[in-house]
């Protein structure tokens, strides 16, 4: 298939030859990874998240005490008291053990609802955006109804109606996050659907499912993923808020929000110990927020 | 088809070759469009103008034929329905009425060609080379996608894509794995052309395919299109607002005004002797190469009328210097006895039409 003998013109070939040597061709995710590698802030906070996650996963191994074992004698002890590295709470339970175990619940409450909402909301949004018309109208107006409530209020209302507990709290948060993720997915899909490459794919006779999987999802996933990652910190906070109000996890299960709630009575006795769950919440949600920011920067750029 | 029509058949730059895909024979036009109509409804808002539905007559009763192996240029002002016509032909938007016959077979009817088969035979290159490629796919995969959708295996489709990249003048090893943002505008348009060729179509619709490119790259791509046409035995429908490019590439040309065909015929005949007042004005609006021949006044005044409420009778009469009462009363017909003649939709071209200058436009 030589080019020389077909009268295509030297100019056409010249255009190619004149270009500088091709840059190393990288995939999209490879280039995202490459940009992240030099983003030290994001890397630092990513390692914080990994550390917290590892600590939570390894809680049964790391925790020196049973997190629910109470003690009448050692109540509200300061940091570093005897074997209690981080002191004890108002019922004499070891704070370090409780924080480690509590991290499990808090991280689960942070990630679980966001993952679920991304799957459900993303699906609804892509369907609404791609099908358009009445389907779009029906889905998006339903979402608007949920969207009209402040998220905290909605979460409280749902888990208040369903009752407390981990599962109900997660369900409530999932419902809170679905509308906003659905909106992001819908607007991204609507935008992509109108582009010529989707038209071209239709013109090639491909099935709708194939077009969505190949051409739509690839372009919708990034904005949805970025937005969802920013919701993790919100979810951690909301979950803590629910527990604080007694709507999330029920005692004696350790959870950062719940611990903050029950320890607030001891704030004048051991302020440092009482602040520990809050510090955990703060650090975790800050880390998720900054990592999400870094991801957005790394994923947004096209070149 | 009359003998006169056959004599005026445009001279093609290729000797007709026998294509195994040919069904209707050499004389059967590749594509016949009959009375194509597309009206876009404009619905009033929820609060205003409800129930009063108006329509934009984007393509209104358009009939023409594209002969085998030719390039039919389509020209007209912005908003005259050129792109809607392209999308109608590709069935990207449903037509309101009309008929499409591809190589003798009606499209979308029980006895004829299925939509899927039509798309295998007819492909389109879009104007915007940027938005017509998926930014998340390596160009090689964009090209292979159509073939994959029609059941070609992954390996074969990849090989096909690499061959096509080579055909459009892009080194497969160097460019195949690149993403669209790593290519220049001209290179992207070459990829788009390769993608359109992936299903080995017999006809390409080029919707302003070179308009967005700068002049030197445009020339390269035009040359490439010429080569591909000979190599793959293609037929082109070339839509453009650039009259010089259309003259360069086309065998015949179709002039559209406000959703209708006003004149169609061999390119040199129309460029040398445009009959319809609009075609004349459109061609006069080109910049002359010789500065001394440049005109001071524009040959045509005003904007096209609103397609929502087009003028009665002849749609051009509001801007036509020769408009008379007959033009308001009756729409001139293009006449379509033979599909490859020089035809014009103007009362002045028809003897005894009621226009004072009836019969003064010389048709053959």
The CATH superfamily title of chain A: MetI-like
Instruction: Report the β-strand fraction of chain B as a percent range.
Output: 15-25%
Chain oligomer state: heterodimer
Can you count the helices of chain A? 12
CATH architecture of chain B: 3-Layer(aba) Sandwich
CATH class of chain A: Mainly Alpha
Average pLDDT of chain A, to the nearest integer? 81
- In the CATH hierarchy, the architecture of chain A is Orthogonal Bundle
Instruction: Tell me the radius of gyration of chain B.
Output: 21 Å
The low-pLDDT segments of chain B are 1-11
Sum up the overall morphology of chain A in one term: elongated
Work out the largest interface and the residue count of each chain: A-B, 35 and 54 residues
Shape of chain B: globular
Summed up, the domain count of chain A is 1
Q: CATH superfamily membership of chain B, which one?
A: P-loop containing nucleotide triphosphate hydrolases
Overall mean confidence score, pLDDT of chain B: 83
Spatial order of strands in the largest sheet of chain B: 6-7-8-3-9-10-11
**Which percent bin holds the helix content of chain A?**
over 70%
CATH class of chain B: Alpha Beta
CATH topology type of chain B: Rossmann fold
Structural domain count of chain B? 1
């Amino acid at each position: 298939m030589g080019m020389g003998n077909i009268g295509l013109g030297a100019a056409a070939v010249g255009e190619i030859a004149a270009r500088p040597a091709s840059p190393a061709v990288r995939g999209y995710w490879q280039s995202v990874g490459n940009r992240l590698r030099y983003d030290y802030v994001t890397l630092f906070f990513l390692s914080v998240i990994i550390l917290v996650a590892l600590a939570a996963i390894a809680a049964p191994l790391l925790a020196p005490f049973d997190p629910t074992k109470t003690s009448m004698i050692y109540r509200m002890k300061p940091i570093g008291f005897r074997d209690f590295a981080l002191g004890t709470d108002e019922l004499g339970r070891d704070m370090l053990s409780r924080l480690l175990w509590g991290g499990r619940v808090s991280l689960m409450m942070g990630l679980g609802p966001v993952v679920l909402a991304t799957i459900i909301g993303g699906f609804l949004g892509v369907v609404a955006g791609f099908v358009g018309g009445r389907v779009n109208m029906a889905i998006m107006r339903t979402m608007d109804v949920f969207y009209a409530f402040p998220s905290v209020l909605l979460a409280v209302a749902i888990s208040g109606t369903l009752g407390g507990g981990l599962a109900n709290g997660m369900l409530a948060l999932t419902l809170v996050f679905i509308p906003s993720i659905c909106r992001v997915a819908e607007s991204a899909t609507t935008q992509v659907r109108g582009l010529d490459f989707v038209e071209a794919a239709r013109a090639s006779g491909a099935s709708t499912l194939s077009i969505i999987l190949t051409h739509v999802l690839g372009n919708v996933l990034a904005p949805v993923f970025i937005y969802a990652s920013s919701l993790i910190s919100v979810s951690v906070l909301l979950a803590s808020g629910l527990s604080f109000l007694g709507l999330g996890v029920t005692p004696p299960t350790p959870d950062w929000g719940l611990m903050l709630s029950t320890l607030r009575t001891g704030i004048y006795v051991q302020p440092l110990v009482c602040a520990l769950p809050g510090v955990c919440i703060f650090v975790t949600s800050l880390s998720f927020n900054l990592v999400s920011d870094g991801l957005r920067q790394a994923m947004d750029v096209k070149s | 088809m009359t003998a006169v029509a056959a004599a005026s058949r445009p001279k093609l730059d290729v000797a007709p070759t026998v294509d195994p895909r040919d069904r209707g024979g050499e004389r059967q036009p590749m594509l016949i469009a009959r009375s194509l109509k597309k009206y876009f409804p404009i619905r009033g808002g929820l609060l205003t103008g409800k129930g009063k539905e108006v329509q934009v007559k984007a393509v209104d009763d358009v009939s023409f034929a594209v002969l085998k192996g030719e390039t039919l240029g389509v020209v007209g002002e912005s908003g005259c329905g050129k792109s809607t016509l392209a999308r109608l032909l590709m069935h990207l938007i449903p037509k309101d009425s009309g008929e499409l016959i591809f190589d003798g077979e009606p499209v979308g009817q029980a006895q004829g060609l299925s939509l899927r088969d039509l798309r295998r035979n007819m492909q389109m290159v879009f104007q915007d080379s940027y938005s017509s490629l998926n930014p998340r796919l390596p160009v090689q995969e964009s090209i292979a996608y159509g073939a994959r959708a029609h059941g070609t295996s992954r390996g074969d489709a990849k090989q096909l894509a690499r061959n096509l990249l080579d055909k459009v003048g892009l080194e497969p090893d160097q460019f195949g794995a690149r993403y669209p943002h790593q290519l220049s505008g001209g290179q992207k348009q070459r990829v788009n052309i390769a993608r359109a060729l992936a299903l080995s179509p017999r006809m390409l619709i080029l919707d302003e395919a070179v308009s967005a490119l700068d002049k030197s790259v445009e020339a390269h791509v035009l040359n490439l299109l010429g080569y591909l046409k000979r190599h793959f035995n293609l037929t082109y429908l070339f839509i453009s607002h650039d009259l010089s490019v259309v003259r360069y590439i086309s065998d015949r040309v179709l002039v559209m005004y406000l959703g209708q065909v006003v004149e169609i015929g061999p390119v040199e005949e129309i460029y040398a002797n445009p009959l319809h007042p609009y075609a004349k004005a459109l061609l006069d609006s080109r910049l002359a190469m010789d500065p001394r021949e440049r005109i001071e006044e524009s040959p045509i005044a005003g904007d096209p009328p609103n397609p929502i409420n087009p003028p009665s009778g002849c749609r051009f009469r509001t801007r036509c210097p020769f408009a008379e009462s007959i033009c308001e009363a009756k729409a001139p017909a293009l006449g379509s006895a033979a599909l490859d003649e020089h035809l014009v939709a103007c009362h002045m071209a028809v003897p005894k039409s009621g226009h004072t200058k009836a019969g003064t436009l010389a048709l053959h």
